[in-house]
Design a protein that fits this description.
Length: 239
């Protein structure tokens, strides 16, 4: 059984590269074959044993509120509005009461992720004793646009390269993490101006974060071309 019940779904982005779709629809509600991304996340994670969700809002937030109010998952969701975007790390800092002293999953809900969540959770539960977090990895076909990692023999993250011109491999950070209750002490040591999980928090976990490589489907729905590829994939497994 999962020892992780809480999940933070980062959902406040503008989705500028998905225009004109995101002129009228927040990125987290962009539909793949009729189903909003947030719905897919809530279905997948609920089936995996998660029961408490925090979702942040900003752009076209009223639509996200309406979605939640009409969702079967409404009672499990805490909505937090950000009048000004706080950044991914800023959202964690502002909502410490939700996750403090608990294991927690943090994910960018504008990605599409279809994987064996039980295996990811198990990688976290059975992590080396000196590790305090687990990062989901995937093999990318565009490594220059991703955060690329190097691993040691125990699959711990030992170097992290955020969108560099000469990435050392195609093993990419899926921007999906499981953290134990050390998260608070780690964040306290981050410079107060730090607002980004990848840039400001992950470096403090180097050597203390193991990894799990998914053989499922993980794609950043960050452009119209990427959205089309995700739709084609869903069609291929549905036919």
């Amino acid at each position: 059984m999962s020892t992780v019940k809480k999940a933070i779904l980062l959902s406040a982005g503008f989705g500028k590269r998905l225009r004109p779709i995101t002129n009228t629809t927040p990125k987290c509600l962009v539909a793949i074959n009729g189903k909003p991304l947030l719905q897919l996340w809530l279905e997948e994670l609920s089936a995996a044993g998660f029961s408490e969700f925090l979702i942040n809002t900003h752009y076209l937030s009223e639509q996200v509120v309406d979605f939640v109010n009409n969702s079967v998952f409404k009672k499990a969701i805490t909505l937090v509005h950000e009048p000004e975007l706080l950044g991914t790390l800023g959202t964690l800092k502002a909502n410490q009461a939700f996750w403090e002293n608990n294991n927690v999953l943090i994910a960018h809900a504008d990605n599409l992720c279809l994987c064996d969540w039980s295996q990811f959770i198990n990688a976290f539960i059975t992590r080396p004793v000196d590790c305090h977090a687990t990062m989901m990895l995937f093999e990318t076909d565009t490594p220059k646009s991703c955060g690329i990692v190097d691993l040691d023999e125990k699959q711990r993250v030992i170097t992290f390269h955020e969108k560099v011109s000469n990435p050392p491999s195609n093993l990419a950070n899926g921007a999906i993490y499981l953290f134990d209750d050390s998260l608070n002490s780690k964040i306290e040591k981050v410079n107060e101006s730090g607002t980004d999980i990848s840039i400001n928090l992950i470096p403090s976990y180097i050597g203390q974060m193991n990894s799990w490589l998914t053989d499922g489907y993980l794609r950043d729905i960050g452009s119209l071309n990427s959205l089309d590829k995700a739709i084609d994939y869903i069609n291929s497994i549905s036919s």
